[in-house]
Design goal:
With about 90 residues, this protein is mostly beta strands. It is built from one helix and six strands. Strands 1, 2, 3, 4, 5 and 6 form a six-stranded antiparallel beta sheet that branches. It starts with 6 loop residues before the first strand and ends with a helix.
Length: about 90
């Protein structure tokens, strides 16, 4: 069985924020099982989501997202176990 990619929050240009399994191929940052963070549900920013979604957090439907590396503003590490059931 292949190793699962790390689950991260990916902040992209134009205000898009995704959560999913992040990898990189020859050309793109690839976010598989990606969910758009539609509503963060936080009062203190994205850091509050490190340990899983909050009651008010709203996620979009899963998809695979490919981003040019220059489109990625930041990536946030997360508690893998807390997020696994939300991206798989």
């Amino acid at each position: 069985m292949s190793e699962k990619r790390p689950i991260r929050i990916v902040i992209a240009q134009r205000g898009f924020v995704f959560i999913g399994r992040v990898s990189r191929d020859d050309h793109d940052i690839v976010v598989t099982d990606a969910r758009t963070l539609l509503i963060w549900g936080t009062t203190l920013g994205l850091g509050e989501l490190k340990n899983g979604p909050l009651k008010e957090t709203s996620l979009g439907a899963p998809a695979t997202i490919r981003l040019h590396p220059l489109q990625v503003i930041a990536q946030q590490d997360l508690d893998q176990a807390a997020w696994e059931k939300h991206v798989d």
